[in-house]
Amino acid sequence: MNVAVLYSGGKDSSLIAIILKKMGFNPKLINVNFGIFKSYLPAMRSAESLGFDFILLELDREILEKGVDMIVKDNFPNNGIDYIHKEVIKNLSDFEYDIIADGTRRDDRVPKLTKNEIRSLEDRKNVQYINLDGFGYKTIDLIANKFFEFKKEKSNRENSDYEVEIRYLIDERGFKSCEIFPEHYQTRVVGFKNR
Amino acid sequence: MNVAVLYSGGKDSSLIAIILKKMGFNPKLINVNFGIFKSYLPAMRSAESLGFDFILLELDREILEKGVDMIVKDNFPNNGIDYIHKEVIKNLSDFEYDIIADGTRRDDRVPKLTKNEIRSLEDRKNVQYINLDGFGYKTIDLIANKFFEFKKEKSNRENSDYEVEIRYLIDERGFKSCEIFPEHYQTRVVGFKNR
Question: Which domains are assigned to chain B?
Fold first, then answer.
């Protein structure tokens, strides 16, 4: 069984990876990069700290450009991030994975695949898609705190989600990413607790 | 941490129980009974076969009666089953559980708590609710087949979901439960594989 987890190094995607491992799979942790900035390094270090295989998936910069078009037009990140995530999953489903997973959870609004989009993906691509939709943030925090050591980091650099390259591209175009994405802290997984 | 899983002995509720166990919890498996028929026995045996603590939760027959009112009126089970499930969760949330889980999955239409109902439950009762909404039936079958031995049984007796007592009550009222619930087979978990 070939299992892929879209991985940012954060607690959500680390948790779905651990669930899959405990269910007897050997998931590969995948971080996507669009060639703008080497934002995959934190995710790579997190994956290594947990003993998972890490894969860097390089996708066409065009996807990020289109997402940023939407974000700049909306002056709000949600539609653009959602677009990028769905393109990433579409691309990933062309590889030979039996299961594709991500760490989206019940209280995430974007990125989020609708049930129809999931059904369509599974049927067209003969793949199974799973996420953390059954879990709220409180339960995810509770379980993640049992398993993982964290480091708190500013969201603009030491992090591997789409936001980092999106910010770069927005600034490159002469807009101010800090006005669209308020600065916030994110926790990155840096290893297991109690092992 | 006090963790309760609403448990029927089927693969879905067995899987969420195993996930919780692998996440370091010691969930209690709970089957609800309304005093109409001892439908909890199969779930009790399944729970024992997996080494979990089993709790029989006896609730007011009135809940089942109201659910059956709806089913007979609709000549269709969905609304009544949904009503019963939500009443059960409401009752369970009055006990001292930190987490309440059930085996409802992505492709279940009923019973199913909406996101607003979950948020309201979690806020009002200071409890965390989780389910298998992130998983489709293919992935659940795949994982359940890794872990569990099954027995296929007719859905009308050797089973512990709400349907058994609902059927009894419908028949008791002089209606034909077999016309509302088409007979089908269900798999019951009877132990672990490879152990």
Answer: 3-189 (3.40.50.620)
